[in-house]
């Protein structure tokens, strides 16, 4: 039968067991108590070791958390740095492209100005040649000791100086000479318009001494 420790101790005090058995039982109890004490001490030591290990792990985790935070901070700083450098690179590239376009524009403008000067010189030269082809002169008449322009000539063909003069020459021998001079004027105007790229408001139909001017407004009304 199972007996509790209190019952056994009571029987030991009452002398129910032999003395040798009691002594051996006491030694056994002391031994068990010492084992229990050692076990408690070992449990305490293990608990302390576990607490120290937990603290070490906690400190290690905190340290690594700090390291991770520092690494993440430097990572963000590098990203910001690279973004700033990329922005500067984009601005520099845009400025370089704009500078190249500006230089190309200046080169094209200089070429255009040079070509324009060449064109002006060529136009001036061709107009100067027209002066030799169609020489224009003036006839003067004396009036009370003073000279005034009476009429103009083109290639030695006299041109009338007024509408009345034109009406006087119509039907005379000088009418053909006047028509030839007006034909020269029409030819000269057409060449000047072509060389100078200036359109005429009223186009000229060149037909030698029978040249005439087309009035587009009158034709549109009719």
From TrEMBL:
Domain of life: Eukaryota
The keyword Protein biosynthesis belongs to this UniProt entry's keyword annotation: no
A GO CC term attached to the entry: lytic vacuole
Transmembrane segments: 68-89
GO MF, one example: SNARE binding
Coiled-coil ranges per UniProt: 36-67
Biological-process GO terms, alphabetical: SNARE complex assembly
Keyword terms: Coiled coil, Membrane, Transmembrane, Transmembrane helix
Name assigned to this protein: Uncharacterized protein
Species this protein is from: Reticulomyxa filosa
